[in-house]
Amino acid sequence: MARKSKSLSAAVSAEIRDNFDLNKFKSKKGLDKNIKFKEQQWIPLSPAFREVTSVPGIPMGHIVLLRGHSDTGKTTAMIEAAVSAQQNGVLPVFIITEMKWNWEHAIQMGLDINIEKNKDGEITDYNGNFIYVDRETINSIEDVAVFILDLMDEQKKGNLPYDLLFLWDSIGSVPCEMSLKSNKNNNEWNAGAMSTQFGNNVNQKITLSRKESSPYTNTLVCVNKVWTLKPESPMGQPKLMNKGGYAMWFDSTFVVTFGNIMSAGTSKIKAIKDGKQVEFAKRTNLQIDKNHINGVTTRGKIVMTPHGFIMDDPNQLKQYKNDHAKDWSKVLGGMDFDVVEENEQVNDISQFEKEPE
Protein backbone atom coordinates (compact mmCIF):
# COMPACT_ATOMS: atom_id res chain seq x y z
CA MET A 1 0.00 0.00 0.00
CA ALA A 2 2.85 2.38 0.88
CA ARG A 3 4.50 1.65 -2.48
CA LYS A 4 1.23 2.40 -4.33
CA SER A 5 0.78 5.68 -2.43
CA LYS A 6 4.32 6.73 -3.30
CA SER A 7 3.76 5.95 -6.99
CA LEU A 8 0.55 7.96 -7.01
CA SER A 9 2.29 10.91 -5.33
CA ALA A 10 5.09 10.79 -7.90
CA ALA A 11 2.57 10.77 -10.75
CA VAL A 12 0.72 13.77 -9.31
CA SER A 13 3.99 15.66 -8.84
CA ALA A 14 5.03 14.88 -12.41
CA GLU A 15 1.70 16.17 -13.75
CA ILE A 16 1.99 19.38 -11.69
CA ARG A 17 5.50 19.99 -13.04
CA ASP A 18 4.34 19.34 -16.58
CA ASN A 19 1.65 22.03 -16.23
CA PHE A 20 3.86 24.43 -14.29
CA ASP A 21 5.26 27.52 -16.05
CA LEU A 22 8.49 28.50 -14.28
CA ASN A 23 8.84 31.67 -16.34
CA LYS A 24 5.43 32.90 -15.18
CA PHE A 25 6.38 32.14 -11.57
CA LYS A 26 9.66 34.11 -11.87
CA SER A 27 7.80 36.99 -13.52
CA LYS A 28 5.18 37.04 -10.75
CA LYS A 29 7.89 37.15 -8.07
CA GLY A 30 10.03 39.70 -9.95
CA LEU A 31 12.80 37.16 -10.40
CA ASP A 32 13.04 37.55 -14.17
CA LYS A 33 14.65 40.99 -14.05
CA ASN A 34 18.09 42.39 -13.19
CA ILE A 35 19.93 39.17 -14.00
CA LYS A 36 22.10 40.47 -16.82
CA PHE A 37 25.49 42.12 -16.52
CA LYS A 38 26.85 44.75 -18.89
CA GLU A 39 29.45 43.84 -21.45
CA GLN A 40 32.89 44.27 -19.86
CA GLN A 41 34.46 47.64 -20.62
CA TRP A 42 37.96 48.88 -19.83
CA ILE A 43 39.64 52.19 -19.06
CA PRO A 44 42.66 51.93 -21.41
CA LEU A 45 46.16 52.41 -20.06
CA SER A 46 49.35 53.13 -22.03
CA PRO A 47 50.47 50.87 -24.90
CA ALA A 48 53.45 49.81 -22.76
CA PHE A 49 51.18 48.64 -19.93
CA ARG A 50 48.96 46.78 -22.38
CA GLU A 51 51.94 45.11 -24.03
CA VAL A 52 53.43 43.83 -20.76
CA THR A 53 50.18 42.75 -19.11
CA SER A 54 48.18 41.56 -22.16
CA VAL A 55 45.10 43.35 -20.75
CA PRO A 56 43.54 46.62 -21.98
CA GLY A 57 43.89 48.54 -18.71
CA ILE A 58 41.54 49.02 -15.75
CA PRO A 59 38.35 46.90 -15.82
CA MET A 60 35.26 49.02 -15.21
CA GLY A 61 32.83 47.98 -12.49
CA HIS A 62 35.43 46.16 -10.41
CA ILE A 63 37.65 46.55 -7.35
CA VAL A 64 41.24 46.98 -8.54
CA LEU A 65 44.43 46.96 -6.44
CA LEU A 66 47.69 48.54 -7.58
CA ARG A 67 50.13 47.25 -4.97
CA GLY A 68 53.83 47.29 -4.24
CA HIS A 69 56.59 49.05 -2.31
CA SER A 70 57.09 52.81 -2.56
CA ASP A 71 58.03 54.37 -5.89
CA THR A 72 57.49 51.31 -8.06
CA GLY A 73 54.88 52.64 -10.51
CA LYS A 74 51.57 52.46 -8.61
CA THR A 75 50.81 56.18 -8.81
CA THR A 76 51.93 56.30 -12.45
CA ALA A 77 49.33 53.66 -13.28
CA MET A 78 46.71 55.49 -11.22
CA ILE A 79 47.26 58.79 -13.03
CA GLU A 80 47.29 57.05 -16.41
CA ALA A 81 43.87 55.66 -15.49
CA ALA A 82 42.62 59.14 -14.50
CA VAL A 83 43.85 60.70 -17.76
CA SER A 84 42.24 57.94 -19.81
CA ALA A 85 39.01 58.22 -17.81
CA GLN A 86 38.74 61.92 -18.62
CA GLN A 87 39.29 61.19 -22.30
CA ASN A 88 36.53 58.56 -22.26
CA GLY A 89 33.87 60.52 -20.38
CA VAL A 90 34.42 58.87 -16.99
CA LEU A 91 34.79 61.18 -13.99
CA PRO A 92 37.99 60.63 -11.93
CA VAL A 93 37.45 60.97 -8.17
CA PHE A 94 40.76 61.38 -6.32
CA ILE A 95 40.81 60.34 -2.66
CA ILE A 96 44.33 61.29 -1.54
CA THR A 97 44.96 60.20 2.03
CA GLU A 98 48.72 59.69 1.85
CA MET A 99 49.36 63.36 0.96
CA LYS A 100 52.09 62.79 -1.61
CA TRP A 101 49.98 64.22 -4.42
CA ASN A 102 51.63 66.49 -6.98
CA TRP A 103 49.46 68.48 -9.39
CA GLU A 104 52.41 69.29 -11.63
CA HIS A 105 53.13 65.59 -12.10
CA ALA A 106 49.48 64.93 -12.97
CA ILE A 107 49.53 67.76 -15.52
CA GLN A 108 52.79 66.44 -16.96
CA MET A 109 51.13 63.08 -17.51
CA GLY A 110 48.24 64.69 -19.35
CA LEU A 111 45.50 65.22 -16.76
CA ASP A 112 43.21 68.00 -18.02
CA ILE A 113 43.43 70.66 -15.32
CA ASN A 114 42.58 74.37 -15.30
CA ILE A 115 45.08 76.28 -13.18
CA GLU A 116 43.57 79.36 -11.55
CA LYS A 117 45.88 82.25 -10.66
CA ASN A 118 45.45 85.60 -8.96
CA LYS A 119 46.55 88.95 -10.40
CA ASP A 120 50.08 88.35 -9.06
CA GLY A 121 50.37 85.11 -10.97
CA GLU A 122 50.13 82.93 -7.87
CA ILE A 123 48.22 79.65 -8.18
CA THR A 124 44.98 79.78 -6.21
CA ASP A 125 43.22 76.60 -7.33
CA TYR A 126 43.14 73.61 -9.66
CA ASN A 127 39.86 72.88 -11.41
CA GLY A 128 38.67 70.55 -14.12
CA ASN A 129 36.67 67.47 -14.95
CA PHE A 130 37.48 65.61 -11.73
CA ILE A 131 36.69 65.55 -8.01
CA TYR A 132 39.44 65.78 -5.40
CA VAL A 133 39.48 65.28 -1.61
CA ASP A 134 42.33 64.72 0.83
CA ARG A 135 43.16 64.61 4.54
CA GLU A 136 41.71 68.08 5.06
CA THR A 137 38.27 66.44 5.08
CA ILE A 138 39.00 62.66 5.03
CA ASN A 139 40.58 61.40 8.24
CA SER A 140 39.47 57.81 8.65
CA ILE A 141 38.53 54.63 6.81
CA GLU A 142 34.90 55.38 7.65
CA ASP A 143 35.24 58.86 6.10
CA VAL A 144 36.46 57.34 2.83
CA ALA A 145 33.51 54.94 2.77
CA VAL A 146 30.95 57.66 3.55
CA PHE A 147 32.40 59.91 0.84
CA ILE A 148 32.21 57.19 -1.83
CA LEU A 149 28.67 56.17 -0.82
CA ASP A 150 27.51 59.80 -0.82
CA LEU A 151 28.70 60.35 -4.40
CA MET A 152 27.01 57.14 -5.55
CA ASP A 153 23.79 58.30 -3.84
CA GLU A 154 24.02 61.64 -5.68
CA GLN A 155 24.63 59.72 -8.89
CA LYS A 156 21.53 57.60 -8.26
CA LYS A 157 19.43 60.75 -7.67
CA GLY A 158 20.55 62.13 -11.03
CA ASN A 159 22.73 64.86 -9.53
CA LEU A 160 26.02 63.42 -10.81
CA PRO A 161 25.49 62.06 -14.35
CA TYR A 162 28.84 60.30 -14.81
CA ASP A 163 30.40 56.87 -14.57
CA LEU A 164 32.77 57.29 -11.61
CA LEU A 165 36.37 56.14 -11.27
CA PHE A 166 37.32 56.27 -7.57
CA LEU A 167 41.11 56.49 -7.09
CA TRP A 168 42.21 55.99 -3.48
CA ASP A 169 45.87 56.61 -2.65
CA SER A 170 46.30 54.79 -0.46
CA ILE A 171 45.00 51.92 1.67
CA GLY A 172 46.79 51.83 5.01
CA SER A 173 47.41 55.58 5.10
CA VAL A 174 44.40 56.37 7.30
CA PRO A 175 43.25 54.66 10.53
CA CYS A 176 39.71 53.79 11.58
CA GLU A 177 37.57 55.93 13.88
CA MET A 178 38.30 53.71 16.87
CA SER A 179 42.05 54.12 16.37
CA LEU A 180 41.62 57.89 16.14
CA LYS A 181 39.52 58.14 19.29
CA SER A 182 41.91 56.01 21.33
CA ASN A 183 45.05 57.65 19.89
CA LYS A 184 46.29 54.14 19.06
CA ASN A 185 46.82 53.04 15.48
CA ASN A 186 45.60 49.48 16.03
CA ASN A 187 46.06 47.39 12.89
CA GLU A 188 43.39 44.87 13.90
CA TRP A 189 40.82 47.64 14.38
CA ASN A 190 41.79 49.17 11.05
CA ALA A 191 41.50 45.84 9.24
CA GLY A 192 38.11 45.28 10.88
CA ALA A 193 36.89 48.68 9.73
CA MET A 194 38.06 47.94 6.17
CA SER A 195 36.13 44.67 6.23
CA THR A 196 32.97 46.28 7.62
CA GLN A 197 32.93 49.49 5.61
CA PHE A 198 34.22 48.16 2.30
CA GLY A 199 33.92 44.38 2.25
CA ASN A 200 30.32 44.44 3.49
CA ASN A 201 29.17 47.71 1.93
CA VAL A 202 31.08 49.90 -0.55
CA ASN A 203 32.59 47.08 -2.58
CA GLN A 204 29.22 45.40 -3.03
CA LYS A 205 27.70 48.60 -4.44
CA ILE A 206 30.65 49.10 -6.79
CA THR A 207 30.23 45.63 -8.29
CA LEU A 208 26.43 45.95 -8.48
CA SER A 209 26.93 48.86 -10.88
CA ARG A 210 27.96 46.24 -13.47
CA LYS A 211 24.33 45.09 -13.69
CA GLU A 212 22.34 46.17 -16.73
CA SER A 213 19.77 47.69 -14.38
CA SER A 214 22.37 50.28 -13.25
CA PRO A 215 22.53 53.37 -15.50
CA TYR A 216 26.15 54.01 -14.50
CA THR A 217 29.24 51.86 -14.01
CA ASN A 218 31.53 52.67 -11.08
CA THR A 219 35.09 51.48 -10.49
CA LEU A 220 37.30 51.55 -7.39
CA VAL A 221 41.08 51.61 -7.88
CA CYS A 222 43.15 51.48 -4.70
CA VAL A 223 46.87 52.00 -4.31
CA ASN A 224 47.90 49.42 -1.74
CA LYS A 225 51.21 49.73 0.07
CA VAL A 226 52.87 46.51 1.12
CA TRP A 227 55.39 45.20 3.58
CA THR A 228 57.48 42.05 3.60
CA LEU A 229 56.82 39.23 6.02
CA LYS A 230 59.98 37.23 6.52
CA PRO A 231 59.56 33.44 6.83
CA GLU A 232 59.83 31.77 10.22
CA SER A 233 61.81 28.94 8.66
CA PRO A 234 65.10 29.47 6.78
CA MET A 235 63.61 27.35 3.99
CA GLY A 236 60.45 29.46 3.73
CA GLN A 237 59.77 32.15 1.15
CA PRO A 238 59.21 35.79 2.13
CA LYS A 239 55.65 36.95 1.59
CA LEU A 240 54.23 40.28 0.46
CA MET A 241 51.60 41.59 2.88
CA ASN A 242 48.94 44.19 2.05
CA LYS A 243 48.62 47.13 4.42
CA GLY A 244 45.08 47.56 5.68
CA GLY A 245 44.23 43.88 5.90
CA TYR A 246 42.85 41.43 3.35
CA ALA A 247 39.28 42.72 2.86
CA MET A 248 40.17 44.59 -0.32
CA TRP A 249 42.29 41.70 -1.61
CA PHE A 250 39.41 39.24 -1.23
CA ASP A 251 36.94 41.60 -2.92
CA SER A 252 39.25 42.68 -5.73
CA THR A 253 38.92 40.98 -9.09
CA PHE A 254 42.05 42.56 -10.54
CA VAL A 255 45.43 43.01 -8.82
CA VAL A 256 48.58 44.51 -10.35
CA THR A 257 51.83 44.11 -8.41
CA PHE A 258 54.77 46.42 -9.01
CA GLY A 259 58.39 45.74 -7.99
CA ASN A 260 59.79 42.92 -5.87
CA ILE A 261 59.22 41.31 -2.49
CA MET A 262 62.07 42.51 -0.27
CA SER A 263 62.32 46.02 -1.75
CA ALA A 264 61.19 48.19 -4.63
CA GLY A 265 63.80 46.52 -6.81
CA THR A 266 63.79 49.28 -9.41
CA SER A 267 66.63 50.37 -11.70
CA LYS A 268 67.16 54.12 -11.76
CA ILE A 269 68.01 55.56 -15.18
CA LYS A 270 69.80 58.91 -15.01
CA ALA A 271 71.33 61.56 -17.21
CA ILE A 272 74.66 62.67 -15.64
CA LYS A 273 77.09 65.47 -16.51
CA ASP A 274 79.84 67.00 -14.35
CA GLY A 275 78.41 65.62 -11.13
CA LYS A 276 74.89 66.85 -11.87
CA GLN A 277 72.16 64.36 -12.60
CA VAL A 278 68.54 64.04 -13.69
CA GLU A 279 66.71 60.81 -12.91
CA PHE A 280 64.38 60.50 -15.88
CA ALA A 281 63.13 56.91 -15.70
CA LYS A 282 62.94 53.75 -13.63
CA ARG A 283 62.74 50.16 -14.74
CA THR A 284 60.40 48.08 -12.62
CA ASN A 285 58.83 44.65 -12.58
CA LEU A 286 55.12 44.39 -13.33
CA GLN A 287 52.82 41.43 -12.75
CA ILE A 288 49.11 40.73 -13.00
CA ASP A 289 48.73 38.83 -9.75
CA LYS A 290 44.99 38.27 -9.82
CA ASN A 291 42.58 38.46 -12.74
CA HIS A 292 39.06 37.11 -12.29
CA ILE A 293 37.84 38.83 -15.46
CA ASN A 294 39.55 37.09 -18.36
CA GLY A 295 42.11 35.00 -16.44
CA VAL A 296 45.22 36.55 -18.01
CA THR A 297 48.15 36.69 -15.57
CA THR A 298 51.47 37.83 -17.00
CA ARG A 299 54.72 39.36 -15.80
CA GLY A 300 57.42 41.49 -17.33
CA LYS A 301 59.41 44.71 -17.05
CA ILE A 302 58.26 48.22 -17.81
CA VAL A 303 59.88 51.66 -17.67
CA MET A 304 58.11 54.44 -15.78
CA THR A 305 58.83 58.07 -16.61
CA PRO A 306 57.38 61.39 -15.39
CA HIS A 307 55.14 61.25 -18.47
CA GLY A 308 53.88 57.68 -18.01
CA PHE A 309 54.97 54.16 -18.92
CA ILE A 310 57.09 53.25 -21.93
CA MET A 311 58.26 49.85 -23.11
CA ASP A 312 61.46 48.36 -21.71
CA ASP A 313 63.02 48.72 -25.14
CA PRO A 314 66.32 50.46 -26.05
CA ASN A 315 64.73 52.27 -28.99
CA GLN A 316 61.84 53.64 -26.93
CA LEU A 317 64.20 54.70 -24.15
CA LYS A 318 66.44 56.43 -26.72
CA GLN A 319 63.43 58.19 -28.25
CA TYR A 320 62.26 59.37 -24.84
CA LYS A 321 65.77 60.65 -24.07
CA ASN A 322 65.91 62.56 -27.37
CA ASP A 323 62.45 64.06 -26.82
CA HIS A 324 63.40 65.51 -23.43
CA ALA A 325 67.15 66.13 -23.68
CA LYS A 326 66.69 69.88 -24.09
CA ASP A 327 64.76 70.09 -20.83
CA TRP A 328 67.45 68.18 -18.94
CA SER A 329 70.24 70.25 -20.47
CA LYS A 330 68.97 73.26 -18.51
CA VAL A 331 69.90 71.41 -15.32
CA LEU A 332 72.99 69.63 -16.61
CA GLY A 333 74.45 72.58 -18.48
CA GLY A 334 74.68 70.90 -21.86
CA MET A 335 73.46 68.16 -24.17
CA ASP A 336 76.52 65.91 -24.03
CA PHE A 337 75.54 63.97 -20.93
CA ASP A 338 75.94 60.29 -20.07
CA VAL A 339 73.03 57.94 -19.40
CA VAL A 340 73.69 55.69 -16.41
CA GLU A 341 71.59 52.95 -14.87
CA GLU A 342 71.80 52.12 -11.17
CA ASN A 343 70.56 48.58 -10.73
CA GLU A 344 68.66 47.97 -7.51
CA GLN A 345 67.06 44.66 -8.48
CA VAL A 346 66.94 42.38 -5.42
CA ASN A 347 64.45 39.57 -6.01
CA ASP A 348 62.92 38.26 -9.20
CA ILE A 349 59.20 38.97 -9.42
CA SER A 350 58.50 35.26 -9.87
CA GLN A 351 59.08 34.87 -6.14
CA PHE A 352 55.74 36.52 -5.40
CA GLU A 353 53.44 34.18 -3.54
CA LYS A 354 49.78 34.14 -4.37
CA GLU A 355 47.53 35.55 -1.67
CA PRO A 356 44.72 33.40 -0.24
CA GLU A 357 41.75 33.24 -2.61
Q: Could you write a compact summary of the structure shown?
A:
The protein has helices spanning 2-18, 22-28, 47-53, 74-87, 103-108, 141-157, 177-182, 187-208, 247-251, 314-332; strands spanning 42-44, 57-59, 63-68, 90-96, 114-117, 123-127, 131-134, 163-171, 219-229, 239-242, 254-258, 267-273, 276-291, 299-305, 308-311, 338-343. It is of the alpha/beta class and 357 residues long.
Can you offer a commentary on this structure?
This protein is of the alpha/beta class and 357 residues long. It has a domain at 37-260 and 284-302: P-loop containing nucleotide triphosphate hydrolases (Rossmann fold), CATH 3.40.50.300. It contains 10 helices and 16 strands. It has helices at residues 2-18, 22-28, 47-53, 74-87, 103-108, 141-157, 177-182, 187-208, 247-251, 314-332; strands at residues 42-44, 57-59, 63-68, 90-96, 114-117, 123-127, 131-134, 163-171, 219-229, 239-242, 254-258, 267-273, 276-291, 299-305, 308-311, 338-343. The strands form 3 sheets. Strands 3, 4, 7, 8, 9, 10, 11, 12, 13, 14, 15 and 16 form a 12-stranded mixed sheet that branches. Strands 1-2 form a two-stranded antiparallel ribbon. β14 (299-305) and β15 form a beta hairpin. α6 packs parallel to α8. The longest helix has 22 residues, at 187-208. The chain is globular and about 100 Å long. The N and C termini lie far apart (53 Å).
